[in-house]
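Data availability (excerpt). The following record was deposited with the supplementary files.
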Amino acid sequence: MSKSHARTALIATSFLLLTISPHYVRADVDLSPAGWDEGEIEKYLVLENAFGQDKPLATGTSGLISGSSSALAMRAGLEALKQGGSAVDAALAGAMTQIVMNAGATVSYAGVLEMVYYDAATGKVYALDAGFNTVQDEDDPLSIPLASYMTPDQKAEPGPRGRTVMAPGFMAGVEVAHRRFGKLPFDQIFQPAIYFAEEGFPISPRLARWINRRKDILSRLPETKAVFTNEGGDFHAQGDLFTQPALAQTLRAVAKDGASYMYTGVWAERFVEAVRKDGGKLSMEDLADYELNWSEPLHVAYREYDIYTNPNAFALAGAMNLLEHADLSARGHYTESPETFVWLTRILRTVRVHPTLGAFVSGGRPQDWLKEDVVANVWEHMQSDADPSDPEAVGNGSGHSSSIVAVDRDGNVATVLHSINTVIWGESGLIVDGVSIPDAACFQQQLIMDTGPGKRLPNATEPLIVLTEGRPVLAASAIGSAIDYETIKVLFNALDFGMNPKQAGDAAHVLASLDDRERVLQDEYGEDLVLGVRDLGIELEVVDARSASRYRGYAVILAIDIETGILTGSAPTTYNGAALAY
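Predicted structure:
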């Protein structure tokens, strides 16, 4: 063994042992869908195509899981709960199955994972940031090829795309989360994903549209094209049985050998080789040096509640502190009070455009959103009619994600967001042994430069858990271009107006402000509210659902009644996820 490989193995072993070993509840667990009741797979395959359909409020007492995508994946997570698994087991089994059912289009085993976890045994909340690491040898990040949506002609820059790839965190996150809080055998949480990768599933109308739309990207490299074409070389179409045998083999290896297979093992070597062949600078050291630790989540006190979220979610802290300082809920609900609507949207715009308070506080830091005097000063500034908007500074990079919330019979709660953080399948067209490879560096060049080489790329996603008197009452995780807006909307509806998860999620959306105007979704607001907002001098546009998609977010939510123990949960109607309980 070379010195380089020996060092790699030693580092990998160290990161895999960062957390305590799990204590398994049962050794006879079998999560494979082959053992599900007759008709279960067929039932949930129908729900896989239930886009845009109303999702009922799930109610239970022993366990609950809700996910933004793939009803089958949520059924896999529910099986983990039924067989004695923890909330982490359920969330991880669900997340890995979401990727298979998604064909790696918007989520990936080479993507990222964020988790907030409540441990019922200790009453403590933890955060896990399994984000991308920047590449150690990347010495000129501003020259990383741009994404097509970053260029004037909407075309990807010509040439190799390997430099758009960073060191992934998803599978390391799976291992570390399970090692600390999992109860089922590690290999079992892979079984639903392996089953559907091997046995396949009919290609849905949506997946067929995606494949057809991205044929140019999926044709770029032979290994990728082979995944999405039949024996005759034609791209798969709606209704075709879609199998992913190479992916199944990779998942079996990780289930057997652990995450090291993807960080120092055979897959890692093939991954690095593919990226470097395409002009990238990623190395085996980048993967071996990837480390994870549980950390303290960001704590935001709001009225009688304690909100715990991603340590970098300071915009959420700013919004909630401004809402409380302004006592905004006392003015009425935002769908009924034009004044509430205007101030809610101004608050959301302010924290999005100025997350570091640079416009208000000299030398301001993101953490300053936690200070009462700073929040008071910002609110006073906002009262002066100063416009906090800056259209040039607003807008998120393109990205795709899935989210999950779960609670088990012991009261442990997990909330997860995982993502490729780029457009569908990215623009590199890389697939390594069945695993789609995100090109998430293609729109974050400045952030990569600011972060520095070989460092964890910061993110501000907002998976969260809410406690009152030390006990969890709510968990939520939002996706979409307006994660921040949707998250605040859910918290405002649930904590200030007592809405259940379905009511809080289905309530009228607050659309993100990406320019100098506000927007509302057609048929979600009454005419009186629209006219009232305009009377206050706000330019307000009413848009249809298609136009609104780039301005909105989508949340999965669960609630726990601490008096009765009843669990309730919801999933967004737009996608094909589900909320399931027992």
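Summary of structural features: Residues 1-25, 356-363, 386-399 have pLDDT under 50 and may be disordered.
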